[in-house]
Amino acid sequence: SQLTVPKESLCCRTYIPSEAPGVTKYPAGPWGDHHCDSPLDLEESLYAAIEQIVPDAAFTMFTGDLVEGVQWLTTRQEIITDIDSVYSHMKGLDLVYGAVGNHEANPVNSFPPAGVQTLANYSNQYMYDRLAENWVQWIGPEAAANTASRYGAYSVLHPGTNLRIISFNTMFYMKENFWLYTPVMSWDPSSQFQWLISELQSAEELNERVYILGHMPMGASDSLYDYSSYFDQVVQRYEATIAALFFGHTHRDQ
Predict the structure, then answer these.
(1) How far is CA 252 from CA 142, 179, 217, 247, in A?
(2) Under 8 Å CB-to-CB from 179, ≥6 apart: which residues?
């Protein structure tokens, strides 16, 4: 028989009665479906597999996007609930370095940079604060305070090594973040490039190595070209210090 692809953007949702559980012609399996959000069983299985396969892993990196994919139905409270839920399930991984994803905002992709006047109900401070509260157990109070005050970015030295983890907010360079389109666009939203350069310069002087962690890959089709060029210049300048770059967003290995 021919497979019928759902017309909706996400499956496993009861948009009409004929799509209710037990009625659908091609229901998702126990671990979900590629057209669906990841179910809790799959999430818990992932963490269990990590603990079983690499029990001595030094740390885990999570590149963001933990809020459900039906972004037109999300609310601030749901984002807070999802952040708490996902990171509570990661506690068995011992040490996690996280990054902020575009779905962590409500509305999705909405990340007002510093200096842009917005109504209070469009501020993302509640989300940065919540991430900081969840990350403090892994990155410590100083880096968590930076997360809250620096729009989701932080820099921390991995314990007992000369490896520095820098997590920065790539949503300030995303085409779909319409807060960026001011009459004179900022070349450095929220001064994040300036902060990144200062952290890399310090790491270079201290002979540290750096992992840079973010959500949207710079240079991807979702990234504004000028910002990708600026980031590339930074990476080229500090190529001897930067050991690796880690991103998500594309749903492919990055």
Answers:
(1) 32, 27, 11, 10
(2) 110, 111, 112, 113, 116, 118
Contact 190, 151 (CB under 8 A): yes
- The strand ranges marked E within the chain are 60-62, 96-98, 154-157, 163-167, 209-213, 242-246
- End-to-end CA distance of the chain, in Å? 36
CA dist., res. 126 & res. 135, Å (int): 14
Tell me what the pLDDT averaged over the chain comes to: 91
The DSSP output letter for 176 is T
- Residue-level length of the chain: 254
125 Cβ contact list (under 8 Å, min separation 6):
148
Beta bridge partners of 38: none
| DSSP, residue by residue, 101-152 | -GGGSSSTT--PPTT----GGG--HHHHHHHHHHHHHHHHHHHHHHHHHTTT
pLDDT digits (tens, 9 = 90+) for 17-48: 877 777 877 778 888 887 778 888 999 999 99
Q: Using CA atoms, how far apart are residues 171 and 109, in angstroms rounded to an integer?
A: 7
Q: What is the CA radius of gyration of the chain?
A: 19
Cα 105 from Cα 127, distance rounded (Å): 7
Distance between CA atoms of residues 222 and 174, nearest Å: 6
